[in-house]
Amino acid sequence: MEGRNRRHEHEGQQELGSSTTVHTAFGFLILSLLTLLQVKYQNFGNPYQTHGATMLLFVIAVLVYTIALAGMSQFTSNTSYLPLLKCVCFIFGAFSCDLLLLILVPPFGWFILILCVCMSVRLICDSHGQILQCFQQIYQSINQSTSKIFNILCGWFQNSFRSLCQSASRALNSSSMPIANSIEKQVVNRPEINA
After folding, report:
1. 30 C-beta neighbours (distance < 10 Å), count
2. Which of 30, 53, 124, 156 has a CA 20 to 30 Å removed from the CA of 68?
3. Given pLDDT bands bounded at 50, 70 and 90, which one contains residue 178?
4. Which residue ranges make up each domain of the chain?
């Protein structure tokens, strides 16, 4: 079992290492395109004002790309999610570059967008089994966690109710509470004071 986990960890490290060149290229391309965007809009204003929706999509795409890349760089024994994260990285890395190209060179940007959509559809179709397996693992994990939490809460409520019942029972059986007959005896045997 331990050898199997080491093999999966080694495969995960190879998976990350093989795509490091692509991620370096995405980083360089994004920085280059942002520099060109800054040069283009040096005298014309702000691209966030003229192309607000595209820039918002760019920020979201870069965030998703970064989160997926960070998820890929986490070394765990469960490497079944790495192919899915690799696809997410490629799709959103290319999409973020394309969004900047749409602002800089719109006709070329639209051509690249069509290519990105086609490649994304192909990647999703090729890895649909892995995607379903990943979602199945997530569902099972959530189901197990929910079941554990439910059992813990049920046990806690049962213990609390049992403790409350025991406390009430002890209070009723306790001799510290006066009984009606003893109160009447105290009132009857009390001497009267004449004024």
Report:
1. 19
2. 53
3. low
4. 2-126, 128-171
